[in-house]
Amino acid sequence: MEKMFDIDANINDLMMMLTDKYRKYTSNDHSSISIEKAQQLMDSLLYCINGYLNSVNVDGNSITTSDYNSANVLYERGLELEKENFARAKELLIDIKNTSLKIDNMSYQDTIFGGLDIFFKKYDVLYAAHETPVDIDYQLSFELKDFTGVEYILKYLERLYLENIFCKKFDEKDIKALLKGYSQDYRVLLLNIYEIVMQNVIGLELIGNDILRLNIYAEGRLILQEMLEDLSLFELQDKLLLALDSILDKLDIKDSRQVEYAKKATIKISYDIKHCISIKKLDKIFITSDYKKDEAASTYKDGAQMSSDELRKFISEMQECRFTSDKIAMIKSSVHSLRDLIDILDTCIWDDEYVEVFKLLSQVELDILYQIVVSDMAMGYKLSELKSWQREFLKLEK
């Protein structure tokens, strides 16, 4: 049962603590602070107190100072706990970066190598412990509810780590082909890689095919339709969980956290499978992988490049241009190679000019630029470490 801190019974202690927190926040400046800021400081105090109470085994519905020496003791213990959670989360993010998939899904790469870093730069455990300054686009298999602050980040990272470890059991080229079979736009979709992989692995296990291949053809879906269509939801779940036991054994997954997470994911997937069986649309769940390369990009032939001296002279002239329109005109008339254009983007295009340059490119050329950017991110570059044109390009793609 969740422990609840009785605010009314501890109001005197809390007001003294708030006054002390206010003095430290303002460095003993006696000028007044806003009601909103005072509320933020109080929320931060209560976050640490409740965080500590929920971490210990205490029976009962509410806690008063009679249970401990004072509300301040609860706060100090809670503050120490949240600092420990912060350190654990920071270490876990490093592990996640080291075990991340080299998959060019923008939300996945942005979140791991950019969005999550924001939290560790902006989080204020002393005065705003309850707040969650973070930019997370990547969706987990299970939405996190009722968590804020560092506790939210720690839960998110723990689950993302479990999902990564499972997916690392498979060849990344097969995962990429599976995602491409799921949608040609997989790079820019908000999706969950773990769930898409898990669905196909379960399907392959049910029909007795190699789970490591990840690929289910139309014939396999027909077998699955016939195998599962007459089962009740509970019978379906039992069958899927039995298949999962075999999958975990084959993949040598014994960690209890991974096992429980996989079981929860399987139960969740069962509802989608049941629905798709009823409308005979199992192709929405059990995907046929697409191993075809991006044909246009793979057959693209770059235009004639300038010599080193020509490019150096061109860049020097462009750097003297005052107007964007003049730069665009120069690019139109003289730049015929995407490689040359990238050098130009690196050296003499700024701010709003990027968008105007991107407008000159064909869809194939835009796709190639995108592959360059996500390749850098997959290599571990943070958003802040990308070149200016790369960051602007990602904004355009979103």
Secondary structure elements and their pairing?
Layout lengths: L3 E2 L5 H15 L9 H19 L8 E2 L7 H28 L7 H17 L26 H19 L4 H11 L10 H15 L10 H11 L4 H18 L5 H23 L16 H4 L9 H12 L4 H11 L3 H11 L4 H6 L4 H16 L9 H10 L1
Parallel strand pairs: 1-2
Features:
398 residues; mainly alpha; 3 domains; two-stranded parallel sheet; 17 helices; 2 strands; 62% helix; flat
What does this entry show, briefly?
This protein is mostly helical. The chain is built from 17 helices and two strands. Helix 3 runs parallel beside helix 5.
Provide a descriptive summary of the structure in words.
The chain is mainly alpha-helical and 398 residues long. The protein has 3 domains: 1-135, no CATH class; 169-284, no CATH class; 297-397, no CATH class. It has helices spanning 11-25, 35-53, 71-98, 106-122, 149-167, 172-182, 193-207, 218-228, 233-250, 256-278, 295-298, 308-319, 324-334, 338-348, 353-358, 363-378, 388-397, and strands spanning 4-5, 62-63. A two-stranded parallel sheet has the order 1-2. Helix 3 (71-98) packs parallel to helix 5 (149-167) and helix 7 packs across helix 10. The model has no long low-confidence stretch (mean pLDDT 88).
Low-confidence stretches: none
Rough shape?
A: flat
Report the span from N to C terminus.
42 Å
Number of domains: 3
